[in-house]
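fold-stage: in
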Amino acid sequence: MYDQPLFLKTLSGSFAVLPARYDLESTLTEFTENVALVLRVFRSEITMADDPCGT
């Protein structure tokens, strides 16, 4: 079980930088590290992909 209020706080805090200029790699690294801590898992990852159709 995880702390849902802490999880939501982590999500909202991690993406508060999105309206401003930010370094994508450091933002996503911080996000995945924080999610792993909140969910009490060893590791978390984000996979990004381009749309091959360009839509």
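fold-stage: in (second)
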Amino acid sequence: MAIAADQLEALLRQAFPDADIHIQDLAGDGDHYRAVIRAAAFAGKSRVAQHQMVYAALQGRMGGELHALALDTGPK
């Protein structure tokens, strides 16, 4: 089971409405993505905390519908 890039982006936009988000399907299989996310919510947060916020936004889909996600996060 895979997740479409637009569905992944929608989940991220719901959590980070002001963010600049760019999604890239790395393998063409809907299972391996790279996400570049710049959001005001990340200001003052460590890289680990930023990634935890992203994983929380995915609502448990990591490891299930979404096998791999390379993250590049930072404040906007």
